[in-house]
Write a structure and sequence with these properties.
heterotrimer; B: alpha/beta; Rossmann fold; six-stranded mixed beta sheet; four-stranded antiparallel beta sheet; 9 helices; 10 strands; about 35% helix; globular; C: mainly alpha; ABC transporter involved in vitamin B12 uptake, BtuC; two-stranded antiparallel ribbon; about 5% strand; membrane (chain C); cell membrane (chain C); ABC_transp_permease (chain C)
Chain lengths: ~350, ~250, ~290
Amino acid sequence: MSESEHSPDAAVTLAPARAVPRIRAVPWFAVALALLALVLPFLEGVPLIGWLASPFQRIQLTYGLVFGIAALAFNLLLGYTGLLSFGHAVFFGSAAYATGLLVKYLHVSSMEGFLLAGCVSSLVLAAGFGAVCVRYTRIFFSILTLALSQVVWALALKFFWITNGTDGLRIPTPTLLLGLVGVPDDKVRFLSFTYYYYVLAVFFICMVALGMIAASPFGKALQAIRDNEIRAQFVGIEVWRYRWSAFVVSGAFTGVAGTLFAPLNGLTTPDILHWTFSGKIVFMTVLGGFKSFSGPILGGVAYNYLETYVIKTTEYWQMLLGIILVALVLVMPQGIIGALGWIIHRRSGRR
Amino acid sequence: MSLLLAQGLRKSFGETRAVNGVDFRVEPEELISLVGSNGAGKTTLVNLLSGLLRPDAGQIAFDGADITALSVGARIRAGIARSFQLVNLFDQLNVLDNVRLAIFSRDGVTRQPLRLAERDTRARNEAMEILGEFGLESKWDTPAAGLAQGERKLLDVAVAYALRPKLILLDEPTSGVGTREKGVIMEAIASVVRERFLAAVIVEHDMDVVFTYSDRIVMMHQGAVLAEGTPDQIRADERVSAVLLGKG
Amino acid sequence: MDIFLAQLLNALLYAAVLFLIAGGLSLIFGVMRIVNLAHGSLYALGAYVMAWGLGRLAGESGSEPVYLIALLPVAAVAVGATGAVVEPILLRPLYARAEEYQLLLTFGLLLILEDAMRYIWGPTPLTASPLWAAFGTLHLMGATYPRYNVVVILLGVLTAVLLWAFVFKTRFGVMLRATSQNRRMAAALGINVGGVYVQAFALGCLMAGLAGAVIVPIQGAVLGMGVDALVLAFVVVVIGGLGSLDGALVGALIVGVVRTVAIQYFPELELAVLYLIAAVVLITRPAGLLGRA
């Protein structure tokens, strides 16, 4: 056939460099942010950004990174697979509870032990729930995840002799790196320095792992399922099996976030199992922008600041979150990252 | 031996007998046009052959094996791929990824979450080569949703073709495009079918196109095969012209 | 025997209220394909409006509390009106977009409504029990049972009958069903789809509001009641089939009975058993017992 007949310029524009797609380099501002996070604890005395380096702020950022992991993991389902889970609190919460029960019954104090228990518990839950939930899509999937997560919440509340009910389980300061870093004397220093770096490292590992999954052939298959389930089936993809795998991966990484959260918060209560907490994970992701890979990270960090500072000013912060969410959906559905992209695009467009 | 042999296929939707006792065969390297008025059962037949629907009765054998009970995925692995009348693409993925996904799936690498899709040079080169055969290589980084209708039709065929099937089922690959584009699409299809020694079943309305490209023509009417033969035989068949002129 | 009867009536009471909530949820979904996460909060709103109104009126005029049951429709209509405002302003811009956005928006609405109620009526629960007490008790085959609860059961039955007549016997019902079958076709036939949507949404909200209003004399208005009710309503519609009114009725009866039995014999597992039933239904009959596939 003659190509020039319908695309006369094809041969001209087809320079080899264009024809060979390259992996997009990590953008400079991501590298800058990563470096900033790395040296942050040493910047306390520096003017202008010193306030950001205070122990209090570093603990806030730690919370933000933990939420960032949860939102990233959640977005593997929402953004990449097209499934909106309203039950992700169960993976976050069950991992935190696994940590709490490990402390209560087995007196474990190693963070790696916590991570293992948290990961396994959320993995097992996700495998079971996923087997039921991924048979459905769209609204039915959302309702089902919500309802199943509520079972676990109800159990945590009702079996108070195991879970301490609404009082929750205490989580003491853990030892890190298989006991290499012992239990510290100064808890604030531990959380704002040692644990800050620990979370930063785990965050980085999770981000790279999830990033790889998203960019792998497996990740492409998920996006294909999101875009067109029928066609995905007709290129030979077993749709529900991939959905299940995505569900399990997403649940397990959310569990990592839940485990990291437990010692940071010092307490595990049924709140983080309740479906409104699932709603908050949804909120973070949408706030950051679920159409991009990195949006949810921004969303997790931003959400934490929002909650911290808004709770201080008003008792009715939930209403404010609601208003922000409604506004996001109506006028800024691409979230923070979409808005940033739009601003940058406009500025470069003017030049 | 026939590549595909379907016997006594029946499929009803409620009271409607969409396919009512159809025998259908495809020989290797043969380009068959499936023609007939709307509601004749062409798309239902394609759906039965591709596994989207299960027949109420009848058998389908492909490459010597009974595939009647096989899933869509198993039929694809056996070598049957299809395109869609209403284009089915991965709209948010770019053109390259649409084709590449079929290659990944065919090679079984979609099960691997820990390698980068972009690093797979072999898959990328093959996808670009296929896009070249369909004249779409300059559009490789356009999202599928951003293509023109004719390009979408071509890409739909290219995705099916990338599965490297032995038999490709194309449901109205030229519907909804202008006459000039129709020719471009049919040329592309015919050239890959001939060069790669594929068999193809094409559902098509335009009789000029049908007579130009087909080895054999199968005419369906009210759920059954009314006539079949070479373009010359069909041209001479009075029943066919009666139906085509709306007297049937 | 008397305990059994009382338990049966309790189950029916519970089913009546659940039917009102889940029926509204299902109606809205059936017509508009929207799952309203704020639906439970609208139920709570009905409860708060009712309790607040009762408190104001009973306090000032000292009138016979039994007549104050006339406040029920007022509270229900107030919630229905809220729905009639919300649909065109917040939901209408989203119909062209992916349905996830609608879910997100109604979640935002839930957050707003929950805090709005806390802001207006404070954190202490409101009670409307004088109305419940004013109805006295009923002696039935050796059992004593609150008469008000029987009124609620009858109201539930009456609403179910009225709703059925409305959907299947009126002209508006025909338009409603046509729109739910095929929105574009309905529009092509000259049905004002926008109008149908507002009315269906308002009607669904009204039912939720009525449910809240009838329950509040029995159990009071508490923060968080809406969120709990929403999840139970989901169980009902999952069992019965989302979008089907008969399904909502059957689901409500099943959940009512199961819950009453569970509270009696294994209170810790009450909710877990309900979700388990929902999960079993979903696995065996994905569209629910009476749902369309």
